Amino acid sequence: MEGIPVPAAPGVRPGRQPGSRGGTPHGKVARVWGLRWLVRVCVLTVVMVAGTLVPAAPASAETIQQQQWHLGALHMAEAQRISTGTGVVVAVLDSGVQADHPDLAGQVLEGTRINGRDDKGRTDVRGHGTGVAGLIAARGGGPDHALGIAPGAKILPVGVLPGVGFSELPRAIRWAVDHGAKVINISFGENREIPEEIEALHYAADHDVVVVAAGGNQDPDGDQVPWPARVPGVVAVAASDRAGVAWTHGVAGPQIVLSAPGVDIETTLNHQPDGRPGGYQHVSGGTSASAPIVAGVAALVRAKFPQLPAADVINRLIRTADDAGAPGRDAQYGFGIVNPVKALTADVPPVSANPLLDGARSASPSAAAPVGRRTGAPALLLIVVLAAVGAVVVLVVTLVVVLARRR
Question: In what order do the strands lie in the sheet with 154-159?
């Protein structure tokens, strides 16, 4: 999916010179030219205002972290001054993780591969799991290195892709729980229910583990939130773009819990073109990218509040989200776009159970303080541009009426 285009300034066609063939009396032409000049200035002013407020497409000379626009959008520098996720283990159930990627050096624990050769989950033939892990815990180290949401966290890789049916997912979930994961990320889904999978998710909940799953991308096989994201209690994540708008190819549904950046995302790749470990990949759009961002925020919260049960971690995430779309929970954004700084600093009352299991669908995010409707850059941009356009229209109409009366 392309980024938001910046509108180019419209051309202004030159008018007829005074005294040219077919012209009008000099005084009238002077007034018309004065009006045309004023209209051009007003139009160009509006375009310049819009161009200043609309985010520009990334330049090719940008560093890796500059291309990771989600870091700035989520105010990660501020959030990471509060917590980096130190001490939290995040399981990545995916294609494995390339542990020798320079930006993941020291971040990847010994895990497992559910089928095939047991490489401890530390190699990745597809690059999918490495990209997910980089979004969670890439360690940065400079502007040309990827930075994860929780660079202090550790990744527990559990290889379940490729070539493995979803019937292996329950075993992967249980293995991650039994080996110390406090957060589990699942950036894939299936359009069929597997009873053993639901039992494994209950097992994770019973052992105080937060499970985050991709909310789903539209495909020919179905347009519904897939399993495991649609299982009650799981944090199902939708994707949003640079302007905070829901990704057009994402799945909407009542099971969506949160939204996070998932369009034009830069993250780690398993291998360079020459085969060396390392490199980066650009994700044009997908909930596979937005889910690990939320998983990373969950790790930040678990590190900041180590005694907080999983139910309260989830409650803190949803109560501090920036509401977007229809007020309250909706099918595109869930409770809103995740807000790491608020999740780490807001005063959120405790809960006795996972709020996603206890009437959360009709709940309002206003239970946390301070929390309110999303009033960030996208809304401000729309208000400013519409106000400027409206002012220009009123000015032009007024001048036309005044000049017409003077003729």
Answer: 112-113, 154-159, 89-94, 183-186, 210-214, 235-240, 256-261
DSSP 173-221: HHHHHHTT-SEEEE---BSS--HHHHHHHHHHHHTT-EEEEE--B-BTT
Predicted TM-score (pTM) above 0.85: no
Q: Which of 95, 187, 259, 288 is catalytic?
A: 288
Beta bridge partners of 212: 185, 235
Backbone angles phi, psi at 315, to 5 degrees: -60, -40
Q: Active-site residue 128, yes or no?
A: yes
How many domains is the chain built from? Answer: 2
Residue at 9: amino acid letter: A
Alpha-carbon gap, residue 355 to 358, rounded angstroms: 5
Give me the catalytic one of 70, 83, 94, 264: 94
Q: Residue 218 is part of which domain span?
A: 68-367
Instruction: Determine contact, residues 183/170, Cβ cutoff 8 Å.
Output: no
Phi, psi of 129 (to 5 degrees): -65, -35
Q: Let me know if residue 399 belongs to a domain.
A: yes
Q: Does the annotation mark 288 as catalytic?
A: yes
Choice among 70, 128, 145, 271 that is catalytic: 128
Q: Write out pLDDT tens, residues 4-26.
A: 222 333 332 333 222 333 333 33
Summarize pLDDT for 385-398 with one digit per residue, the tens.
455 556 655 565 55
Residues facing 112 on adjacent strands: 158
Whether 249 sits among the annotated catalytic residues: the reply is no
| Count of CB atoms situated within 10 Å of the CB of 398 | 10
Q: Element (H or E) spanning 52, and its range?
A: helix 26-53
How far does Cα 16 stand from its chain's mean position? Answer: 51
User: Do 267 and 213 fall into the same domain?
Assistant: yes
Residue 329 lies in a domain: yes
Same domain for 172 and 213, yes or no, is yes
Residue bearing tokens 């007024």: 398
Assign 363 to helix, strand or coil. coil
CA dihedral of 195, 199, 200, 203, whole degrees rounded to 10: 170
Pair (276, 382) in one structural domain = no
The tokens of 12 are what?
Answer: 């202004």
Mean pLDDT to the nearest integer, 357-379: 41
Angle at 344 between CA 340 and CA 349, to 5 degrees: 120
Give the model confidence (pLDDT) of 134-187 as tens digits.
Answer: 999 999 989 999 999 999 999 999 999 755 556 789 999 999 999 999 999 999
* Residues 239/246, Cβ–Cβ less than 8 Å: yes
Token duo for residue 49: 């205002």
State whether 339 and 401 are in the same domain. no
